[in-house]
Design a protein that fits this description.
2 copies of one chain form a homodimer. With 193 residues, chain A is of the alpha/beta class. Chain A has helices at 2-14, 35-48, 65-75, 134-146, 164-169; strands spanning 16-18, 22-24, 32-33, 56-60, 79-85, 94-101, 106-113, 122-130, 149-159, 175-184, 189-191.
């Protein structure tokens, strides 16, 4: 709980709101990484999923890697990151899903080598942001294609005013977001508690 | 030293050599990350640079992020990753350098917000591979543009048979590579000791 309040304080202090409901937290989560703080976020995630039999963490490049690494370090499991591809490499060795990016108004593929997610795995999906949920839905699709179990998702910051979180929770998938933003304007950010 | 031998053993066991002197270590360093092992590599890097007054670690997305994070976690300093751009955003707020990729035969830009590297910083550059050295030279360029000090570079795997390492050491910059490959064929990999 203390970590959550620290995270909210950091978002309020360092976050910048841009048009289009974009929140930039490049000073500690995205481009510059406050590694000691992310390790604490990783410990929080490890605590939330400690009884879920997680064997591996899955994220997508590039901004998900740091928080996923931190969670994996605290849980002592390997992590895998999906790559973003525009290519049409339809190798049967690859798990692949299409993701529409609302930020960039384009569709891209995310791919993972089939060898890195097996039916015996219980996967925790970790990402930095959850908004419309498209990236997360793509990652869930990869895990389902591999026939692995999904423990749930752990997200650093959820935009609670967009529908991705509800959409995925309504599918019966556990989603834990460390900070949930209820509303956001140029000068105020309100969190859900 | 034990870590180095472990790393060499992992490269021999899990590495795959492809035409064009490509070494794939996707099972523990690149796509799938053996996080506990990378934390040990991070500790080794922290030991090498413990007296260098490092204030921040710099890498480039995406495959450098994990090893840079591990080193930063062990040194308790923040890390920053440069982004790869094809765009022509010439914002004065960005540090920018051009990198030619021998693997992909294209030139791309790497960019970092100017606010994340200051003249007061002493930067340790961390990356997963060093071959021709182009990415590393680009990262050094960013640090020099920012007017910051360079403590040196720490690399997971150096292809010692390519000239990047010598090129940069000859500029007087300290380069520490955990594993240095002297030669590499389909069925043998020889390390420098």
């Amino acid at each position: 709980m203390i970590l959550i309040l620290e995270l909210e304080a950091k978002i309020l202090k360092e976050g910048q709101v841009f048009p289009g409901e974009i929140l930039k937290v490049g000073s500690f989560l995205n481009q510059q990484i406050d590694v000691d703080f992310l390790m604490k976020m990783g410990a929080e995630i490890a605590g939330l999923y400690k009884d879920s039999g997680v064997t591996k963490i899955l994220t997508v490049e590039a901004s998900g890697i740091a928080v996923a690494f931190a969670a994996a370090a605290q849980m002592h499991v390997p992590m895998v990151f999906a790559k973003k591809h525009q290519s049409l490499n339809l190798s049967p060795d690859l798990l692949r899903s299409s993701v529409f990016s609302f930020t960039h108004k384009t569709t891209y593929d995310i791919v993972v080598s089939r060898e890195y997610i097996s039916p015996e795995d219980t996967i925790l999906i970790v990402d930095d942001f959850l908004a419309k949920g498209n990236a997360l839905i793509g990652l869930i699709d990869l895990v389902e294609q591999a026939g692995a179990k999904i423990a749930g998702a752990a997200i650093a910051i959820e935009k609670g005013f967009q529908d991705g979180g509800d959409l995925i929770r309504n599918r019966g998938i556990r989603v834990e977001s460390l900070a949930v933003i209820d509303s956001m304007t140029d000068d105020t950010i309100t969190f859900r508690h």
